[in-house]
Amino acid sequence: MYGVVLWSDKEDHKAVIWCEDHGDLAYYSASGESAFDGVSLDAGDLVLFNLSEGKNVRVATNPQLVAQQQFSGLADSICGADSAKAMPSEGQNNVVQFAPRGRERLAS
Q1: How many helices (H) and strands (E) does the chain have?
Q2: Considering the entire predicted model, what is its pTM?
Q3: Tens digit of each residue's pLDDT, the chain (108 residues)
Q4: Measured on CA atoms in the order 54, 52, 8, 84, is the torsion positive or negative?
Q5: Where are the alpha helices (DSSP H) in the chain?
Q6: Do 39 and 52 touch, CB atoms closer than 8 A?
Q7: Which segments of 10-108 does DSSP mark as H helices, in order?
Q8: What angle do CA 93, 20, 32 make, to 5 degrees?
Q9: Residue 43, CB half-sphere, CA atoms under 13 Å: how many?
Q10: How many of the other CB atoms lie within 10 Å of CB of 106?
């Protein structure tokens, strides 16, 4: 699965990833690995990873960096969103539209 790193802690080797399927967030933890193993994840990185689902959590394993800082402002954009504007009024759907970027535009 592809996803974007929203938060990471390099010292603890942990990250929270927003998944391409827009389901629950996935959590990555490289516990037991040394600081020299694996990929270094930073907020905004586009990653490819394996996903497993437990009872209460989605777990990302084997992350591979696809594009560094591809979505560097995503976490700040989400946190800074005006929730009153983002919430649909009665009769509207609940989809928040994002402006397309470059080649990522979807054919209609």
Answers
A1: 2, 5
A2: 0.64
A3: 999 999 999 888 899 999 999 889 999 998 655 444 667 889 999 999 999 998 889 999 999 999 888 777 777 766 665 544 544 555 555 555 555 555 544 444
A4: negative
A5: 74-79, 83-86
A6: no
A7: 74-79, 83-86
A8: 140
A9: 11
A10: 5
Long-range CB contacts (within 8 A, 24+) of 59-62: 59/26, 59/27, 59/28, 59/29, 60/3, 60/15, 60/17, 60/26, 60/27, 60/28, 61/28
C-alpha span between 102 and 97 (Å, rounded): 16
The residue type at 78: I
Beta pairing class for 46-53 and 2-9: antiparallel
The owner of tokens 């970027």 is 101
